[in-house]
Amino acid sequence: MKKIAAPLDMQNGTRFKTNKYGYVNIVEYYNCHTVIVSFENTGNIRSISAAKLRSGNVPDRNVPPESILLGEKVYSLKHGWLTVTKVESENIVILTNKKNEKIQMLLPAVQKMRNQSNEIEEMKSQTNKAISLKDLTKRNKAVNSIVKKMLSDYGK
């Protein structure tokens, strides 16, 4: 494979943060489609595209995907808030509730609850955000005319 001169942010030894797997270091840059990286925590070496590396979307294949779940909190309608403590096999997840009672669930059910918990947290964070003037002016013309009339009639 023919090597191309690396861009400034893709020099050998440059450190990038991944979304879920810690940091990676660039070992070799060939072109924008082939960048050889090494994971700091596992030492695993793999090839990735420069675009995925810049966005942090670099999965470490030595780390099982289930271990990412450990310590996460999910909400169940039946049991309340649960914490993932162990992944026994490919499909069984052990969770504990506030009373330290162990609960077994299937991995797809836990992932579904995890996604719902993330959506709830996103909705809470959106309601707490300050509303900017730009967001307030994004209305249709009918609403804008009503608001304008209210403001002009205010205090009369």
Task: Give structural notes.
There is one protein chain. The chain has 156 residues and is of the alpha+beta class. It has 2 domains: 8-55; 65-128, Thrombin, subunit H (Beta Barrel), CATH 2.40.10. It contains 4 helices and 8 strands; from the N terminus they run ββββαββββααα. It has helices at 50-55, 107-128, 133-136, 141-153; strands at 15-17, 23-31, 34-39, 45-48, 73-76, 80-87, 92-96, 102-106. The strands form 2 sheets. The chain has a 4-stranded antiparallel beta sheet. β1 and β2 form a beta hairpin. The longest helix has 22 residues, at 107-128. The mean pLDDT is 80.
Care to give the gist of this entry?
With about 160 residues, the chain is α+β, with helices and mostly antiparallel strands.
* Total helical segments: 4
Radius of gyration: 24 Å
Order of helices and strands: EEEEHEEEEHHH
Gross CATH architecture of the largest domain: Beta Barrel
Fraction of residues in helices?
Answer: 25-40%
Shape: flat
Give the class-level CATH name of the largest domain. Answer: Mainly Beta
Total DSSP E strands: 8
Mean pLDDT: 80
Within the CATH hierarchy, at the fold level, what is the topology of the largest domain?
Thrombin, subunit H
Widest β-sheet, arrangement of strands:
1-2-3-4
- Overall number of domains: 2
Residue ranges: pLDDT <50 for 5 or more in a row?
A: none
Structural class: alpha+beta
How does the major sheet shape up? 4 strands, antiparallel
Strand percentage lies at: 25-35%
Distance between the termini: 78 Å
